[in-house]
Amino acid sequence: MQQTTIKIKGLDCASCAEKIEKTLLREKGIESVSVHIGSEKVEVAFDSSSISQKRIERSIEALGYEVVRNGSPAGPDISAFWRMGFVLF
């Protein structure tokens, strides 16, 4: 069992947290998920032989949230627009 904490940009409401939690818990190998709205973090316990941290991060990004990685450049927060279906050019 491995545990990780993932920083997410754009996590601002209970329904966002619930969407992330439900999505991740459907993935094979995810044991538990705890979403912290105030700190914009997700704690995940998972079986690394079944799922990788990279795959977990991609699942979160597929929902329209930005995973903040070390060295990520700070840019405008467009995640809310992405989740609402707006396309920016």
Q: How are the SSEs ordered, and which strands pair?
A:
Elements lengths: L1 E8 L4 H12 L4 E7 L4 E6 L6 H10 L3 E3 L10 H6 L5
Antiparallel strand pairs: 1-3, 1-4, 2-3
Please tag this protein with its features:
89 residues; alpha+beta; four-stranded antiparallel beta sheet; 4 strands; 27% strand; globular
Brief summary of the model shown:
By secondary structure, the protein is α+β, with helices and mostly antiparallel strands. The chain is built from 3 helices and 4 strands.
Any overview of this molecule?
The protein is an alpha+beta fold and 89 residues long. Helices cover 31% and strands 27% of the residues. It has 3 helices and 4 strands. It has a 4-stranded antiparallel beta sheet with strand order 2-3-1-4. A hairpin with a 4-residue loop joins strand 2 and strand 3.
Helix share, percent: 25-40%
> What is the number of helices?
3
The end-to-end span amounts to 42 Å
Order of helices and strands: EHEEHEH
Which spans have pLDDT < 50 for at least 5 consecutive residues?
none
